[in-house]
Amino acid sequence: MTTTIGKRPPTRLKDDAIVEAIVEIRFDTSTIPEILFGRLADHAPWEGFEQRRLPAYEIPDPMRQVDPNLRYTPLFELHDTVGHRSVRIGPHVLSYHQLAPYPGWVAFRPDLVRVIERLFEKTEKLIVRRLGFRYINALRTDVHGIKSILDLDFIVTAAGERLPGNVNVNFTKALSDDTQCTVRIATADFIQGSIPPTTTVVIDVDVFTKESFRTKDVANVKQWIEQAHTQEKEHFFRLLTNETIDALEEK
């Protein structure tokens, strides 16, 4: 498997491929979950969002606490059908989701800052244990000119032969002492869930902190998000050819 490094990510694309952008914060706090949800739901920018319980709410709390897969599962959701975004909250997790159409980093970044600041303002004894920044990109034939895996700057070989399609590859690499990145590249036949009908390849770039990460500082969280956004872009555009980048870049 090979890719080309050192490419310059464009400032903006004419048509981005993002179907979902997700920022997740896992934490410990002494604030009771229902109280935390009420404090967050009262946030002015989220006024009018639909409020609902998620399926994990029905699972008894002792069971959620002992199961690592359930401990960080959201229980409540604030959902904005107009802006295609939602805030999901649990006793130890908050995640912010922006579905397509993605508004661009200039608009998305202030939303994230408000989410982070609100969480720190409304929780007691907050310790952030994990941060995640993830973009799921659906590359399409008609919009992005990607007809198959062969149109990426990405080669997978088996026994010396390049694989032309039906690919599902994951790899993880360290980015710094406290951060790593998992990239998932899959052709459409491996994808479950809703993606645009002309999607050929999905590129899922997930930047996240390592197990040892801890912080109580809101400034550290904001700085990490900025860095993760830059790292996510670098790893996504590394997989596109220069010709594709030039064709898609908004001049």
Question: Could you explain how this protein is built, in words?
Answer:
The structure is a single chain. The protein is α+β, with helices and mostly antiparallel strands and 251 residues long. The chain folds into 2 domains: 16-125; 133-251, no CATH class. The protein has helices spanning 33-41, 61-66, 68-71, 105-121, 141-144, 218-237, 242-248; strands spanning 2-3, 18-28, 50-53, 76-80, 85-90, 93-99, 127-140, 154-155, 157-158, 161-162, 168-174, 179-187, 199-209. The chain has a 9-stranded antiparallel beta sheet with strand order 3-4-5-6-2-7-13-12-11. The longest helix has 20 residues, at 218-237. The two termini are 32 Å apart.
Key structural traits:
251 residues, alpha+beta, 9-stranded antiparallel beta sheet, two-stranded antiparallel sheet, 7 helices, 27% helix
Structure at a glance:
The chain is an alpha+beta fold. The chain is built from 7 helices and 13 strands. The chain has 2 domains: 16-125; 133-251, no CATH class.
Let me know the number of strands: 13
Order of helices and strands: EEHEHHEEEHEHEEEEEEHH
Task: For the record, give the distance between the C-alpha atoms at the N and C termini, rounded to a whole number.
Answer: 32 Å
The coarse overall form would be globular
Low-pLDDT segments: none
Strand order of the largest sheet: 3-4-5-6-2-7-13-12-11
| Rg calculated over all Cα atoms | 19 Å
Structural class: alpha+beta
Our count of domains comes out at 2
Largest sheet: 9 strands, antiparallel
Total helical segments: 7
